[in-house]
């Protein structure tokens, strides 16, 4: 199975950094109020940071301002709500589930919320679903790790390590599920744009994936004057992927595209100064 | 040793005659177990003189939120179940996670705590002698509890392969309880195991008072049914007798803080019942070896219940940080000693930090002072998120993607460097070269912001750092508009656009120059090789 190492490292790394940032801000608050107030405060603060970091990373890596903005708002908001609510639920369920179960439940809810927030950036159902599953998995595993680490290292540093690992697990979960369930993607072979690096993959998980120089593009090719604002579009129809030209000229396997063409695995797609390879996972 | 041996063998015959249900199976089991029992009894018998059996119930955490107070109920008996004399704080040592803690409150027998007891009784035929024994012992039990000032209530559950009585009713009257026991009829059986797990579950649903000690006394001479024991073969309805396993039942009993005292077959014959007693902080008595002194045994249980102590201490970690802590209690009394362990888990799934280490006053009866809530930021709490943010930006810029080998192979397998560029410092891995039907500049420097290849897709274009250029190379050494490349008759010509850092071809600064295949072109600090179209 082809898994893009890049996305896994990006998401796990962003989650890790988010967890550390959240820990630094949340830890001084760990002495306030009663258990419920603390659960909400700590969950919400850690949630904001992990959410923002995970939401921003894809846009940052793609050099895509719009995506960064959306990711920060959606990820942060989802993290805030999911973290506060999730940990509160975990605390309420403590009697029934105990520490381990409570933490797994609490951080899973948190993970789902962050996954949904990050997924919503792409406005695609598949991304939402993948985000939620990944967040759930990462949150459950991360919650268990959190429990074990804080039991062994009950000091501030222990919570730091625990939250870093928790963030990394949620990030990894979201990234991994996205990678496992990806159907089709465009891989950059070479590009004259300033942001599309060789080997970078753009997932085609929306019904319409727009390629162009405009900020609203799903695949933004910035800084390449030979790319039009709305250059081309890949449409998904009944599991098939059709490439159609927008304002710019497109070539598939060195043939100019006039009518929408169905892409096959391994097709080379040229958009301005960028050459993509179309990849599709068939079968299972 | 010999005494035990004799006692065992005689009881052994007594027991096998009692269980008419299936002596054929029981005899070989007990014969094997007999030798183990002799061994075990011999060992414990030798140690009995200097051993105290300490029995801890689950720690009480009602006051934990206000400064980390932990309460422990415990009893201390000798191996025969007789309570050890009047204990005081100097006889006990409490450790949490290996750290000795100071006992701040200690209450002995006279401040008896309420106790709710459910007797869970096996009423198969072989148990007839014990029905009479229980009736006889009830007065003694009630007496001892009453004398110890313990406000007791009694309840009764009976079972065979099914639970036959489970009214969740307690009585304060020993006489009424005796009448319940008196009406029991021993009957049935059919197979060896009986359904003690379902009966224990029914007993755990009794309306125990929240502040009372909850005790279940299980009395049976048979091992228990459990899910997956194949008991459907003996069941006329072709169903298993119980849907429960010990692992499912135990958490419920522990959560309800119930101590199960089990008078049941020895551990090797009924391991589940033994482990229930151990895990719930109760006691296990071997019905085979101790059955003959059954009424006395019940009295002893009453005495051990009556001799409950309570102590409280302040946890060294008085915060609800969601962690589990191990507690051990050692009782030393007249050269004898005993220890029991338990554990508790505090709330707080989000975690918490110790703000002020609590200093226990050491005076008995004093409630620990509430730990102050403090929000405590220092410089690193803000520096760390900043660094994390910088780290995120760096992570986004790191080159993590690489073309898979198969793609490399398809779009240019050779990684050789042209001889013409020997003057430059090449980064071999970055160079992919293959004849292509278009002219291009190929990068030699390992700068990630820079395209690896600039394909000449038009006849005239400008390369520079500025947004208005046709090919943008965002590098600080490159001017806003750095060079223009134009296709003329002889080929592509490069024009320097009065750039700050200049342009060189094969190491020579140029204003304009005709490009030929293999020439090293340096734009600012970035080195490229020019490759002509190769059609």
Structure characteristics:
heterodimer; A: 284 residues; alpha+beta; 6-stranded antiparallel β-sheet; 6 helices; B: 535 residues; 6-stranded mixed β-sheet; 24% strand; disordered N terminus
Number of helices of chain B: 11
The unreliable regions of chain A are none
Using only C-alpha atoms, the radius of gyration of chain B works out to 42 Å
Overall structural class of chain B, as computed from helix and strand content, comes to alpha+beta
Oligomer: heterodimer
Query: How would you sum up the global shape of chain B?
Result: elongated
Main sheet: strands, sense, barrel of chain B? 6 strands, mixed
Taking pLDDT < 50 over at least 5 consecutive residues as the criterion, the unreliable ranges of chain B are 1-20, 42-49, 357-373, 413-432
Number of separate helices of chain A: 6
Structural class of chain A: alpha+beta
User: Which pair has the most extensive contact?
Assistant: A-B, 75 and 64 residues
Overall mean confidence score, pLDDT of chain B: 77
Helix and strand pattern of chain A: HHHHHHEEEEEEEEEEE
Spatial gap, N to C terminus of chain A: 10 Å
**Share of residues in strands of chain A:** 15-25%
